[in-house]
Specification:
- Its cofactor is pyridoxal 5'-phosphate.
- With 376 residues, the chain is of the alpha/beta class.
- The protein folds into two domains: 206 residues, Alpha-Beta Barrel (TIM Barrel), CATH 3.20.20.10; 113 residues, Lyase, Ornithine Decarboxylase, Chain A, domain 1 (Beta Barrel), CATH 2.40.37.
- The protein has ten helices and 18 strands.
- Strands 1, 12, 13, 14, 15, 16, 17 and 18 form an eight-stranded mixed beta sheet that branches.
- α2 runs parallel beside α3, α2 packs parallel to α9 and α7 packs across α8.
Length: 376
Amino acid sequence: MEITDAVRKAAKTFETPFLIMDLDIVEQNYRKLQNAIPGCKIFYAVKANSHVRILERLRNLGSNFDVASIGEIKKLLELGVTPDRMIFANPMKREKDIAEAYRIGLRLFVADCPMELEKIAENAPGSQIVVRVAVENKHSDWPLSRKFGTDMLTAVDLLGYAQKLRLKPVGVSFHVGSQNYNPKSWSNAIENVAKIFYWVERNFGIELSILDIGGGIPVKHLKPIPTVEEIGQTVLQAVNEYLPNVRNLTIFAEPGRSMVGDAGILVSRVILRCQRGSEEWVYLDAGVFHGLMETIENFRYELVVEGKEEEKKMPFVLAGPTCDSVDKIYDDAMLPYNITLDDIVYFINAGAYTVEYGTNFNGIPSPKVYFVQDLT
């Protein structure tokens, strides 16, 4: 998202910090993915940004939704999204939430271990199961495989076990890691996952019909990124090459960051500049606990200081407003040498995982959300 005159006016009008979003960019991102992988069922990952206006826009476009909790499910129900448009994709669910989702009418669940299958069989009998597989994440900024997913041989056994539990094994999912820069990551994953389709049919007579390619499509920050079209072409080529004989195959995708990341800018303001030893520090009214939790893992946003875009830059320690030492954004932020009190600092393409992580720590409220569509 670009810093338009409307955004600059909002930055000088509204109290910071706040997130400003453009719903039209969200729609463009949805349509781009839809066109890049024709026939793909898109399940927007609600956790990326669950603002009602965003969910409503995607609902109206026909999107499905990747949900991680009963709270997200109920929020969608209140917006008129039916359970058949949801996948309960969190591989670690409370039994009471599984039962409640089932009661509501949700029938599509993800699992990656025997106990999760047993919980689903007990609380959501006869439901459809997608088994999540761990794949290589080395080309991503945020690898996920240590926490989620099983190995391929175990995945085969899990699909067979799901059938034994009288569940309906229907597919396999994977995630190449958040902010993945190499389209081949998807083709490599599909090449491996294709073997599971073959093995479960041979060993258990199970014909899988869903290939869930997860998320991972990158948003532009500081590194060059492949286009959605390039990733889509790679996925389609891999499917044609490695899964040519699968009947009625449906591709699922679970985009989160790529749907909303570049549709937002986080706007903050300098509340202090000082020197500590040999280091220059700048403190903002946004920080790790108030919109920028991902920077703990050194997630790098493009930073722009209002009116000082052409000034010479130097390194600063950039920190948030709370009294916790964890609230440090970057050790080496390159900012204008003359940055000072009340300067406006923009975090570009920050529409994902900012307001969702917000807290009221130290009694400081989370950033508010505004929309370009409401600005005059």
